[in-house]
Specification:
This protein is mostly helical. It is about 75% helix and about 0% strand. The chain has one domain (about 1-160). It has a two-stranded antiparallel sheet.
């Protein structure tokens, strides 16, 4: 069980790091968008601000998703399950999280191949100067992998709770 707890702590730490990285990205995005708007107004636009904002926003969203899963912050509709016993609700929650983990696992696996392909061709977006997009593709893979792992650990926690063991 120590390996499970240690692995869970590692994934939680990585989820927290992803949230911090995503938050820093949002601050950079805000500053860059503001500088771009002011620069355009003054006749001196910031080169590639649109391209940078697009890729930073993309990375920020997906890096923060595992943290949201860690906090249990994703949408949860309980209209049909609220009258069920807590144990049945826990089992149903675990099943849904397992399905979500499988979907995010498939997204991780399939996006890895695409990210590698774009790495090999050094994908760029053309603007005032070529803006590399391929590094941000790998951040998507990292974000999807983190949320898949976080959801799996949430499933383990819920199953242990349903079985009456420590959570």
């Amino acid at each position: 069980m120590n390996l499970l707890k240690t692995s869970n702590r590692v994934v939680e730490t990585l989820s927290n790091i992803g949230a911090v990285a995503g938050s820093v990205g949002i601050v950079i995005l805000m500053l860059l968008a503001t500088a771009g708007a002011i620069g355009r107004k003054l006749g001196h636009p910031v080169p590639n601000s649109l391209e940078a904002c697009e890729t930073i926003m993309f990375a920020s969203v997906f890096l923060g998703m595992a943290f949201v899963a860690l906090q249990g912050g994703h949408i949860n509709v309980t209209l049909f399950t609220q009258r069920l016993s807590p144990r049945v609700q826990t089992i149903m929650d675990a099943g849904v999280l397992l399905l979500a983990a499988a979907v995010f696992g498939l997204l991780t696996w399939s996006s890895w191949g695409l990210a590698w392909k774009w790495f090999l061709i050094r994908e760029v977006r053309l603007g005032a100067f070529p803006w590399p997009i391929w590094p941000f593709r790998f951040l998507f893979v990292v974000g999807m992998g983190l949320i898949a792992l976080q959801l799996l650990f949430s499933v383990v926690t819920l199953v242990r709770k349903a079985l009456g063991r420590e959570a």
